[in-house]
C-alpha cells in the first residue's frame, strides 16, 4: 500500500457546492476509473494493479490519468522509482472507496445480475479441516448465492496466486513484517515426533519437513543452526497428511502447530536440547479488486471462527 504524506491536512467542502443541481459542473466518476485508482493505491503500483485487474499497465495508467483530468488535480506523485499519494489523493482515496462500496451494495441489494457469484479462497491444507466446516456453514446461511471455491496450497504459493489474480482471498502464514496482510491470530509451533521416536544425540537430527519455501522450515533450520545442532532433512512433503505418514514411522522429527499434534505423537523441546520456535502469525490477504459486498461478510465470518479457535487472536 502506498505511504500517504504526513501530516494530513483536512479538506473543507465549499458550502456553495451543497445542493448544487447543475450536474454539468461535476466530473463523471466512472467506477472503472475509481477502481483503477484504489487498486494502484492498495497494491503499491501500476504493474501490480494491472495484474489484479487483468488489464495492461498502460490501461491502468490511462484510467488514473483520466480520473485526475476530470477532477482537475493530481492524485499520485510518480517518479521512475517511487509512487506516493498526493494530499488530494489521500483525501480522495477515502471517498473513492466509499463510492465503490456503495455501488457494490446497491447492485447486491437489487440482485441485478443473474451470473453466479464466485469467491476464490485459498488457505494451507492443515488449516482447512480446522476452520472450513464452521466457516462455510455460517457463510452459506447468510449468502447462499455465493459459490466458494477452495484452494489448498502452501502460503507462498497462495500469495503468488493472489498476486496473479487467480485468487480473491487468502489466509496465509506471515512471511515478512511488511507482507501487507491483516494479522488475525497466532499459532504456537512445536517440535514433534511419534511417541516411539528415539532421539540419538550422537547423530544429526532426522527431519521431515515441508519444502524449502515453507516459512516454518526456514525458521526451524535457522534455530537449529544458531544452537549449533547438526541436522539433515530426510523427507519432505507438500501435504500435511504426507508428513504425518512419514513421522508415524517413528524415525523423524517434524514441526506442528501445538493444537494439531496427533494423539500418537509427543512434543519435544528444551528438555531434549531443541530450541524454541517462533509462533506462526496468520494473515488475511485480499485482492483490491473484490467486487461484491458478500466478500466482506466472508472475511468477518473467518475472523469470528478464528477468534473462537485461537485464544491469542489479535
From TrEMBL:
HTH lysR-type domain span: 29-86
Keyword Transcription recorded: yes
Pfam family, one: HTH_1
Record-linked PROSITE patterns: HTH_LYSR
InterPro entries: LTTR (IPR050176), LysR_HTH_N (IPR000847), LysR_subst-bd (IPR005119), WH-like_DNA-bd_sf (IPR036388), WH_DNA-bd_sf (IPR036390)
Keywords in alphabetical order: DNA-binding, Transcription, Transcription regulation
Domain of life of the source: Bacteria
Keyword Phosphoprotein assigned: no
MF terms (GO), sorted A to Z: DNA binding; DNA-binding transcription factor activity
Record-stated family: Belongs to the LysR transcriptional regulatory family.
Protein name stated in the entry: LysR family transcriptional regulator
Organism: Halomonas salipaludis
Amino acid at each position: 500500500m502506498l505511504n500517504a504524506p504526513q501530516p494530513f491536512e483536512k479538506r473543507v467542502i465549499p458550502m456553495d457546492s451543497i445542493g448544487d443541481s447543475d450536474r454539468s459542473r461535476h466530473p463523471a466518476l466512472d467506477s472503472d476509473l475509481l477502481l483503477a485508482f484504489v487498486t494502484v493505491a492498495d497494491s503499491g503500483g501500476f504493474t501490480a494493479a494491472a495484474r489484479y485487474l487483468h488489464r495492461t499497465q498502460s490501461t491502468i495508467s490511462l484510467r488514473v490519468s483520466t480520473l485526475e483530468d476530470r477532477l482537475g488535480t493530481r492524485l499520485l506523485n510518480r517518479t521512475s522509482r517511487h509512487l506516493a499519494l498526493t494530499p488530494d489523493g489521500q483525501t480522495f482515496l477515502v471517498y473513492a472507496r466509499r463510492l465503490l462500496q456503495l455501488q457494490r451494495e446497491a447492485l447486491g441489494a437489487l440482485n441485478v445480475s443473474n451470473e453466479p457469484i464466485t469467491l476464490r479462497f485459498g488457505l494451507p491444507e492443515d488449516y482447512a479441516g480446522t476452520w472450513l466446516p464452521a466457516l462455510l456453514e455460517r457463510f452459506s446461511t447468510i449468502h447462499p448465492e455465493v459459490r466458494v471455491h477452495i484452494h489448498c496450497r502452501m502460503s507462498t504459493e497462495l500469495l503468488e496466486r493472489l498476486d496473479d489474480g487467480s485468487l480473491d482471498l487468502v489466509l496465509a502464514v506471515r512471511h515478512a513484517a511488511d507482507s501487507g496482510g491483516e494479522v488475525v491470530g497466532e499459532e504456537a509451533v512445536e517440535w514433534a515426533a511419534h511417541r516411539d521416536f528415539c532421539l540419538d544425540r550422537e547423530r544429526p537430527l532426522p527431519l521431515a519437513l515441508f519444502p524449502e519455501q515453507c516459512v516454518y522450515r526456514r525458521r526451524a533450520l535457522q534455530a537449529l543452526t544458531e544452537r549449533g545442532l547438526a541436522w539433515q532433512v530426510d523427507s519432505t512433503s507438500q501435504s500435511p497428511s504426507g508428513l504425518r505418514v512419514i513421522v508415524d514411522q517413528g524415525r523423524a522429527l517434524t514441526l506442528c502447530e501445538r493444537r494439531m499434534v496427533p494423539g500418537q505423537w509427543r512434543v519435544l523441546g528444551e528438555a531434549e536440547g531443541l530450541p524454541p520456535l517462533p509462533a506462526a502469525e496468520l494473515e488475511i490477504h485480499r485482492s483490491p479488486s473484490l467486487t461484491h459486498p458478500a466478500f466482506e461478510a466472508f472475511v468477518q465470518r473467518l475472523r469470528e471462527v478464528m477468534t473462537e479457535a485461537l485464544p491469542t487472536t489479535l
